[in-house]
Every structure is written in C-alpha cells, then in structure tokens.
C-alpha cells in the first residue's frame, strides 16, 4: 500500500507540481499557507481534480486513470459533508453498500466502526444533531468503512473549537496509528501536523519547499513560512567559519559552516536595550520598533533594521524599557542561542 | 443582528400616497373576484349540486389526469432538469430556452401543435396508430398529454433551480465512497433536492388541474372522457351559471389547499 505520485495540475494562474511518496502505515502531512495547493493535491489524489500531467501509483497499480468511485480511497472532508438526510449509521454504511454489501451487512460494518470511534449510542442521529467532534468521528468512520488503501484527510480538525480539537486530535492520532494503509493529510495548523504526521511535506506556491520528520522541520526551517509556523527568526546568509553574513549584519554562531547557510533563533533569545550595551553579546544591532503586540503571556516586539526580527519580552520589561513603536533600540542575541545549518 | 436592531430603531416610514393607492387598488382587483365567487355561491343547494354525477365525474377526471400528467412530468422532467443543471453540452442554452417555451406559449397554440404532431394524420400520430393502434386526440390519454405539455416546464424549472443550488461537494463525497453516478443521483442528489422536486410537482399538478386551452383543442370536450373541471365550468356558464359557481368554488378550494401546503416553500416572501 505504498503510494507514489507525481501530481501536476495546471491552472491559468497556478501550477501545482509535486512528488509524493508515502509508505504503508505512514502518515504524511501536507502543510502550507492558504492557496499553496495542498487541497488541490489531495483532490487530485482522490480523482476529483484531473491531473494535467503525472501519475498516481498505489502498490504498483496506476490509479490516475480510474474514476474517483473506482479508487481504493477513503476521504474525510474539511466540513465532513455527512449526508444530511441519512443517519450517522447509514452515512457510514453508504460506502460498504456501494461496494455491494447487503443492507444488513453494511449496517453491521457501520455499527462496528461507530463503536470503534465511540459513537455507538449516536448511530440513529442525523448529522445536524451531532456535535462538531462527533461529526468528525462519523466522517472518519465513513471513510474507513470502505477499507481504503489510501486515506485522505482535508483539514480534519479545522472546523472544531480549540477545546474539542485537543481530544479529537489525540483520538485521530490513535486511529491513524491503527490504519495500515498510506495516509495523506492536509493542514495549515503546525500543531496538528506535528502531532498527527510521521513526516511533513511543506508546500508553498504549488511546490514542495521542505520535507522531513516533524522535529527536524521544526528545528531547521528553510522558509520564512515554516520559521513563522514554528516560531523562529530565520535568515539566509553566507557562512564563513563561526559567522554568517546576513545582509549587512554579521551573526556569530555556535556552529562553524562554510557557504550558504541558515541562521535561526527564537524570539525569546533577543534582548533589548535602550542604549548600546557594553559586554559580551557579539550579535548587536540597532533596530526600529515597528509594532508591539501581545503574544501569550509575553509581549512580541517587531523589529526593523539590518534584519527583520521578533523579540519576546515580559510585560514588566516592556514597562521598564518604556518602548513605543517608531523608537530606536539596541537588540542582541547570544551566539549560543543561535543555530546555523547549511542552506 | 446589527441589521435587525437598527431596523427596529428607525420609525416605520409612512408609505407615500402615490404608491399606497395603486397598491390597494391592485389588492382589491385580485381579491374582489374571489370574494364575489363566495358571495354569489348558492350555499343552500351546494351539497346537492356537488353530489351531482356530472360534477363528480369532472372532478374525478380532473384529479386523475392531473395526477398522471404530474407523474409523467416527474419521470421525464427530473432527468431533463438534471441534464440541464449538471451537464454541459453544445446548445444547452437553446435546449433550456425550448423547455421553457410552453410556459409562455398560449395553451391553445400548444393544443394545435399537439394535434399537428400527435393527431391521426400528424407526424408521430400516424405512426402511433398504424404501429400500435394508439390514438391520442379526443381521448383521456390525450388530456394527460395536453396537461403534461403545459405543466412539465414548471417542474423542470423548479427542479433545475434546486439542483443548481445544491452543494455538489456531497456528490463528490459520495463518489469517493465508491458510488456510481446513478447511485449518487439516487441516494444523494435526489434526496437533497427533494423539497424542490415536491414544490415543482405541486405546481405542475396545479397547472395541470387548471389546464383549459390545450385540453379543449387537443382532447375535445366529451363528458366522462375529456371534460375536466375547467371545461365543465366553461360549459356550465352558458347553461346554468349557478353550477359554474359551484364548480369554480371546488377549484378555488383546491388552489387554496395547494397554496397552504407550499406556504413555507417559495410562495411566502423571505
């Protein structure tokens, strides 16, 4: 149940072109900003969007020539699309019925799946009587009921409120771990991707910009989008030993590299001073405050200057430094707080 | 929420006379004839007149033919509406325009056209008679054909509108679950547009029930076989005006019932 796909979808103002390999039992998350083409990629895998070029091969069998209803897939849609006129049980039984099971047989399969997602007591409910979390689980059960080789999930948690999301996310993770086929899931939420996926594939403007294990991607972001997602300041520059030249600024790092390199550091590592400090920090630059906003329990300061950066400080520090947008300030980062890696 | 509360705050504007006077005149114009019908009705002899065989015969014929015409329209009209709403073929706009022609065509013209095609010497009628021994004009079947010809477009337009408004992603979801296109139509599309189908069928039935021009032209006016209620009303008016009023009251009652059943659909303003 290994998936190998090359998806090319050409539209007037947009081209999607990516290679995707998913092993049996593996969960791959397509992560990217809105309009990056993640959902188009998923719909192409399902056959709902025709490929302009490329192929989809599942277990050695080409699948891109088949109509959606002939593909061995199960799909969970963003707003679930449970059939409003059918009960939860009949929604789940729909797939097995289409595969030729008798009504009783299909309902038995459906009942067993509803039991598995903990909704045996809601079998008779219509979709509009279900809560968001319940509807999500029915949608998952419906997709699994066709015993797919490839499971596709489009923003499976996006329609849920924060509280429900937490529970459903960990439950979904458990069900995905039990699923033997290949899973491709689309999300724009880095937390969902980190928790649910074995591997992240980051898409921007229709192409893959980075992929790897979640921890690896989080530690070594390669685009501004990924850096923002994982909450790091990221710069691309030219390394020369223990220093990386980013624009006009020379950033000292703990690693020694040569050539093109990335430098990343967390916003909390940036210290702010009203006047030029003396002493150890070697990475020091003069910046202008572009904006100040709340960020969790702290305050995030947007800095303009030789590099654009975010600095997280405590509300107490903000009051003490008496900062305001437009002000000029000194910023510094210790070399030990930075992390450099080859570009 | 904002819009609703704001609406409450502004004092209701007094309608200008220029609009109010014609509006009331229009209302009177629409309501008075119906009121007249009720005022002039021979209430004392009503039960006896209603029980007269020719009234019951006409009513039964009207109900039966309108119902069969509606069933025929459903059988042919729903697939036609699906074709117009869901597929794209060259000349689709033209086909859609042709489907709606009977809506605006004077029914008498429709009756003449049916005679020319399905009449004994008509293009198709000739063949129907020689091959199957079927003659449509001046038969009860002819009444059904005339009614369906005039009423089916109402159903097609209503169902096509419902199909266009329906969320097609449900059909995609059904396809990913392995449903063939026929299964998708039967188990997802049709149940979801059912309110539109019902509204269209009721409208179609009401139109068929009131059909006069095409029926009298194509099927004639024979008691028991082709004389439906509207034809009986017209005929009674010449000989026995009170009977015409009674028959009209029956049709009015049927119309009111239909209006009430559609109240929550699209007859009521939002």
From TrEMBL, chain A:
GO terms for molecular function: ATP binding. Keywords: ATP-binding, Molybdenum, Nucleotide-binding, Transport. Residues 278-342 form the Mop domain. SMART domains: AAA. The keyword Nucleotide-binding applies. Coiled coil: none annotated. PROSITE patterns: ABC_TRANSPORTER_1 (PS00211), ABC_TRANSPORTER_2 (PS50893), MOP (PS51866). The keyword ATP-binding applies. InterPro entries: AAA+_ATPase, ABC_SmlMolc_Importer, ABC_transporter-like_ATP-bd, ABC_transporter-like_CS, Mo/tungstate-bd_C_term_dom, Mop_domain, P-loop_NTPase, Transp-assoc_OB_typ1. Residues 3-230 form the ABC transporter domain. PANTHER family: SPERMIDINE/PUTRESCINE IMPORT ATP-BINDING PROTEIN POTA (PTHR42781), SPERMIDINE_PUTRESCINE IMPORT ATP-BINDING PROTEIN POTA (PTHR42781:SF4). This is Molybdate transport system ATP-binding protein. It comes from Nonomuraea roseoviolacea subsp. carminata. The lineage of its organism: Bacteria, Bacillati, Actinomycetota, Actinomycetes, Streptosporangiales.
TrEMBL record, chain B:
InterPro entries: MetI-like, MetI-like_sf, ModB_ABC, NifC_ABC_porter. It comes from the Bacteria. Keywords: Cell membrane, Membrane, Molybdenum, Transmembrane, Transmembrane helix, Transport. Signal peptide: none annotated. Residues 59-262 form the ABC transmembrane type-1 domain. It is a multi-pass membrane protein. Gene3D superfamilies: MetI-like. It is found in: Cell membrane. The chain crosses the membrane at residues 17-39, 59-85, 97-118, 138-159, 188-208, 243-262. Part of the binding-protein-dependent transport system for molybdenum; probably responsible for the translocation of the substrate across the membrane. Belongs to the binding-protein-dependent transport system permease family. CysTW subfamily. This is Molybdenum transport system permease.
């Amino acid at each position: 149940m290994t998936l190998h796909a090359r998806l090319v979808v050409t539209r007037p103002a947009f081209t999607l072109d990516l290679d995707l390999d998913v092993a049996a039992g593996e969960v791959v998350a397509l992560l990217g900003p809105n309009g990056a083409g993640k959902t188009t990629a998923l719909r192409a895998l399902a056959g709902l969007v025709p490929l302009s070029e490329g192929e989809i091969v599942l277990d050695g069998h080409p699948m891109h020539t088949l109509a959606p209803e002939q593909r061995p897939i199960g799909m969970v849609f963003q707003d679930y699309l449970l059939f409003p006129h059918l009960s939860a049980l009949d929604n789940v039984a729909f797939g097995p019925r289409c595969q030729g099971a008798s009504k009783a047989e299909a309902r038995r399969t459906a009942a067993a799946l509803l039991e598995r997602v903990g909704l045996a007591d809601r079998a008779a409910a219509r979709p509009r009587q279900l809560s968001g979390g319940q509807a999500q689980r029915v949608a998952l059960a419906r997709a699994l009921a066709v015993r797919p080789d490839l499971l596709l999930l489009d923003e499976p948690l996006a329609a849920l409120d924060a509280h429900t999301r937490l529970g459903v996310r960990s439950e979904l993770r458990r069900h995905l771990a039990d699923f033997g086929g290949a899973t491709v899931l689309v999300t724009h939420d880095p937390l969902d991707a980190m928790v649910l996926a074995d591997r992240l594939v980051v898409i921007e403007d229709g192409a893959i910009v980075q992929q790897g294990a979640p921890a690896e991607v989080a530690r070594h972001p390669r685009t501004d989008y990924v850096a923002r997602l994982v909450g790091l300041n990221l710069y691309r520059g030219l390394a020369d030993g223990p220093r990386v030249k980013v624009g006009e600024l020379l950033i000292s790092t703990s690693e020694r590299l040569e050539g093109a390199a990335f430098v990343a550091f967390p916003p909390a590592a940036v210290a702010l001073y009203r006047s030029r400090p003396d002493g150890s920090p070697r990475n020091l630059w003069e910046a202008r405050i572009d904006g100040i906003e709340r960020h969790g329990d702290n305050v995030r300061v947007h800095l303009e200057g030789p590099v654009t950066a975010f600095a997280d400080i405590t509300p107490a520090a903000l009051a003490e430094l008496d900062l305001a947008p437009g002000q000029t300030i000194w910023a510094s980062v210790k070399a030990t707080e930075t992390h450099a890696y080859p570009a | 929420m904002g819009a609703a509360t704001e609406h409450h705050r502004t004092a209701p504007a007094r309608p200008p006379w220029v609009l109010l006077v014609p509006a009331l005149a229009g209302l009177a114009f629409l309501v008075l004839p119906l009121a007249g019908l009720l005022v002039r009705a021979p209430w004392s002899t009503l039960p006896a007149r209603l029980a007269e065989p020719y009234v019951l015969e006409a009513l039964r014929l009207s109900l039966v033919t309108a119902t069969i015409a509606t069933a025929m329209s459903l059988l042919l009209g729903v697939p036609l509406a699906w074709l117009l709403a869901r597929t794209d073929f060259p000349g689709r706009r033209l086909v859609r325009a042709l489907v709606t022609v009977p809506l605006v065509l004077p029914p008498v013209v429709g009756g003449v056209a049916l005679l020319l095609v399905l009449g004994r010497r008509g293009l198709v009628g000739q063949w129907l008679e020689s091959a199957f021994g079927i003659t449509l004009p001046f038969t009860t079947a002819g009444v059904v054909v005339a009614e369906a010809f005039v009423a089916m477009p109402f159903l097609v337009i209503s169902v096509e509108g419902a199909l266009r408004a329906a969320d097609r992603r449900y059909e995609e979801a059904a396809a990913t679950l392995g449903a063939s296109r026929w299964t998708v139509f039967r188990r997802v599309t049709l149940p979801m547009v059912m309110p539109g189908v019902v509204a269209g069928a009721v409208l179609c039935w009401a139109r068929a029930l009131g059909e006069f021009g095409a029926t009298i032209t194509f099927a004639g006016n024979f008691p028991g076989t082709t004389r439906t209620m509207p034809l009986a009303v017209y005929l009674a008016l010449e000989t026995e005006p009170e009977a015409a009023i009674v028959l009209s009251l029956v049709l009015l009652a049927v119309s009111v019932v239909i209006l009430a059943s559609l109240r929550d659909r699209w007859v009521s303003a939002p």
